[in-house]
């Protein structure tokens, strides 16, 4: 049975419900020790299909319903908490501190190796927001034959800023990030988003507020540089040789107080930017908007989530995963 696969290498996970985790260790970097965490939940029935999910900025994996939907549709589910996020964050580290998104190649490739060793032949990459950017960038460079598709949930293909900040400010910070990677700047998104999600405020979801706070801590110039450089590659028009599905909210907004807009639009990124740069990806790309969707579509209202999963698994079936 699938549930016996390499169980001795995993420990119980805080999510319970048969979720397990494995710590991945890597060479020290500019802050010292580096780890990542691979979380998995196996399907009840044996399967050679797996999904590997990567979270966004100021985030970690906690979306139990998403994992269960994949299990119900014949996939073993895996998720990475990347280095310096969530389960992988160490007290010696500044949260989210990387200087090149290629640093994440180590844990993505290690996860794929483990997934292959656990008797899988097909893998769907799945990324939300910054995870969508990271995996799009990775997908354009990988030659791993197991990877059969990429699903992006509101990928971070562009900063959602006013014209001057985006056109002049970000490039300047990116250049400065080469020589001054540890200089800090505000993370820059509304606390309303987190408040709309967590059950302690106005939302329905339960997660660790230390790992996903409503107000993100300041980010390093080096992190801005890492994001900006990857975005530049996407905007040039990367080529991906397997099917890509990009989903996003139908509209974005910038509310100043808690309102219906917060619960029915993307208040983090611009849907126009997502669509514009997804269209530049060379290959088999489908782009789908969702009415009343929020930034993380799988945390939207129930009726929206139902449509997201329906369209996702229809696309998977169409592409014969």
Structural write-up:
This protein has 321 residues and is of the alpha/beta class. The protein has 9 helices and 11 strands. The chain has a 9-stranded mixed sheet with strand order 1-2-3-5-4-6-7-10-11, with helices on both faces.
Q: Which key terms come to mind for this protein?
A:
321 residues; alpha/beta; Rossmann fold; 9-stranded mixed beta sheet; two-stranded antiparallel sheet; 11 strands; 32% helix; MAG_DAG_Lipase; hydrolase activity; AB_hydrolase_fold; hydrolase
Short description:
The chain has a single domain (2-158, 238-318), classed as Alpha/Beta hydrolase fold, catalytic domain (Rossmann fold, 3-Layer(aba) Sandwich). Helices cover 32% and strands 20% of the residues. It has nine helices and eleven strands.
CATH topology: Rossmann fold
Rg calculated over all Cα atoms: 18 Å
Give the N-to-C terminal Cα separation: 21 Å
Give the strand order of the largest sheet, numbering strands 1, 2, ... along the chain. 1-2-3-5-4-6-7-10-11
CATH superfamily: Alpha/Beta hydrolase fold, catalytic domain
Q: Number of DSSP helices?
A: 9
Series of H and E elements:
EEEEHEHEHEHEHEHEHHEH
Number of domains: 1
The residue-averaged pLDDT reads 95
* CATH architecture descriptor text: 3-Layer(aba) Sandwich
Structural class: alpha/beta
Major pleated sheet: 9 strands, mixed
CATH top-level class? Alpha Beta
Beta-strand content: 15-25%
């Amino acid at each position: 049975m699938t549930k016996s696969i390499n169980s001795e290498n995993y420990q119980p996970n805080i999510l319970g419900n048969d979720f397990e985790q494995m710590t991945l260790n890597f060479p020290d970097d500019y802050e010292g020790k580096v780890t990542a965490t691979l979380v998995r939940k196996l399907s009840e029935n044996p399967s050679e299909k797996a999904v590997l999910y990567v979270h966004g900025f100021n985030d970690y994996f906690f979306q139990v319903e998403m994992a269960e939907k994949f299990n119900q549709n014949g996939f073993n589910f895996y998720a990475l908490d990347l280095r310096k996020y969530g389960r992988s964050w160490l007290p010696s580290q500044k949260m989210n501190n990387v200087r090149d998104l290629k640093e994440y190649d180590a844990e993505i490739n290690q996860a794929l190796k483990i997934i292959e060793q656990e008797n899988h032949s097909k893998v769907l990459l799945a990324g939300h927001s910054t995870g969508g950017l990271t995996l799009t960038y990775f997908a354009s460079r990988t030659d791993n034959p197991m990877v059969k598709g990429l699903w992006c949930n509101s990928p971070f293909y562009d900063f959602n800023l006013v014209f001057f900040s985006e056109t002049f400010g970000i490039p300047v910070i990116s250049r400065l990030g080469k020589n001054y990677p540890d200089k800090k700047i505000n993370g820059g998104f509304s606390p309303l988003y987190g408040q709309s999600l967590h059950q302690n405020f106005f939302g329905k979801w339960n997660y660790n507020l230390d790992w996903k706070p409503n107000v993100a801590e300041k980010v390093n110039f080096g992190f801005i540089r890492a994001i900006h450089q990857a975005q530049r590659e996407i905007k040039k028009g990367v080529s991906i040789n397997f099917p890509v599905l990009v989903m996003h909210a139908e509209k974005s907004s910038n509310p100043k107080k808690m309102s219906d807009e917060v619960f029915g639009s993307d208040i983090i990124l611009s849907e126009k930017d997502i669509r514009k740069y997804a269209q530049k990806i060379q290959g088999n790309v489908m782009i789908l908007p969702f009415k009343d969707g929020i930034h993380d579509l799988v945390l939207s209202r129930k009726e929206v989530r139902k449509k997201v999963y329906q369209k996702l698994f229809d696309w998977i079936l169409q592409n014969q995963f």
